[in-house]
Amino acid sequence: MQQGPQSPDLSSGLEPAREYALTGASGVERFAENFMIVTYDPKIDVGLWLHLGTWPDDFGIYEDQVIISLPGDEGQLSMYAYRRPAAEERPAGANLRLRCVEPFKTWTASFDGLVTHSSDEEMRSGRLRDGAKELARIELTATMQAPVWDAHQSATSRYGGGSMEEQVWASSHYQQLYTVEGTVTLRGKTQPFSGTGMRDHSRGRRGHGMDQWGGHVLATAWFPQSRRGFGLQRMWTPEGRITLDTAFVTVDGKLHHAGIVEAPKLERLRNRGEQFTVKLQSDLGLHELRCTTIRTHYATPQKPLGMAFGADFDGPYGIYAPGHGHWLWDGDESYGLMERSARLQRGSA
Question: Domain for residue 66, yes or no?
Answer without folding.
Answer: yes
